[in-house]
Amino acid sequence: MDQINKIAPSEHLFLRELEQKDWEDVHAYASQEKVCHYQPWGPNSVAETQSFVNQVLKDAAEIPRSRYVFAVENQGNNHVIGAGEVNIRDRTNRVGEIAYIINPAYWGRGYATDVAVRLVEFSLAELELHRIYATCDPRNSRSARVLEKVGMIREGRIREDVLLREGWRDSLLYSLLDYEWENAKEGEMLR
Length: 191
What we know:
Layout: E1 6-7, E2 13-17, H1 23-30, H2 33-36, H3 46-60, E3 67-74, E4 80-90, E5 95-102, H4 111-126, E6 131-136, H5 141-149, E7 153-164, E8 167-177, H6 178-186
Parallel strand pairs: 5-6
Antiparallel strand pairs: 1-2, 2-3, 3-4, 4-5, 6-8, 7-8
Helix pairs in contact: 1-3
């Protein structure tokens, strides 16, 4: 298994591989309607959350590995307050997708941005990806701001690409290239 263990911590939180024992903390946010409002899943039942964690562990054992899911822990409380994910979508062209989720009890504190920065750094430095992308519901202005804060460029709108409970939704597509990230770091645009 391609074990990563954890990503370099920030001042406020750190990311580590999701573990079986984390399912209850994951369920604390994945069972809330406002967390999955813009998603095609949830609110999760206990069985659905346990199934998600089991699938993450199964995916972590695959060779070659294409999915990395990290538990987000707030420094000092030892509770999982969210998750960050990187999926390698195209090995040949070195393309990956990032995603993140934070427990609403911790919204508005910059944690999503912190997680997104860590995922970008991991994707480019450890996985040596060239292009990273992320999508968000056009109504989710907070998520769009996070993606823009980490230097991602809005490429456009993907029409009716996700089926939600209330019908089809569009997605905003954001991306970042490896050299753009290096330029942003050199210019300290991310501070």
